[in-house]
Amino acid sequence: MASVGVVCREPPAQLSRFRREMSKNMPPSNGANRRRSERVMLQIPIEVLTESVEHERMQEKAQTMVVNAHGGLVKLEMEVLPAQPIVLRHPRSGVEAEARVVRVENPPGGFMAVSFEFLEPSPHFWPVEFPPEDWGR
């Protein structure tokens, strides 16, 4: 399994301000845990890019856990918040897709489990040879 490396981190004081700013733009949660497309267990290296409130670039080499046509779940060490915009990049091909953080969980193990959704459905972003039928919808 690939190791997760943080290129840069945001200091705690900036993070608190970032959280306040981001929470102003967070959509209300309806509590539903629905899937728009079937999930596939796929662990691949991915780069996650975002920026702080101060427009400082943050980047981390990470690992996906689960993917689908509309987003996925990735392990991260850097702190992100729901509704925060992110960009996912395949390290080998350089292909990028814009997304936003949907949920952040902090399970045991020293990382955050970050659910994200693409701004536009992107079933071809993932290297899945036999994608589920609902990825074509």
Task: Please characterize this protein's 3D structure.
The longest helix is centred in the first third of the chain and has 13 residues. The protein contains one helix and eight strands; from the N terminus they run βαβββββββ. The protein has a six-stranded antiparallel barrel. The N terminus is likely disordered. The chain has one domain: predicted glycosyltransferase like domains (Thrombin, subunit H, Beta Barrel). Helices cover 9% and strands 37% of the residues. By secondary structure, it is mainly beta.
CATH structural architecture: Beta Barrel
Average predicted confidence as pLDDT: 77
Specify Rg, calculated over alpha carbons: 15 Å
- The count of helical stretches stands at 1
> Would you state the CATH class?
Mainly Beta
The fourth-level CATH homologous superfamily is: predicted glycosyltransferase like domains
Strand content range: 35-45%
Main β sheet profile: 6 strands, antiparallel, barrel
SSE ordering: EHEEEEEEE
Contiguous uncertain segments of 5+ residues: 1-15, 26-33
Q: Order of strands across the biggest sheet?
A: 3-4-5-8-7-6
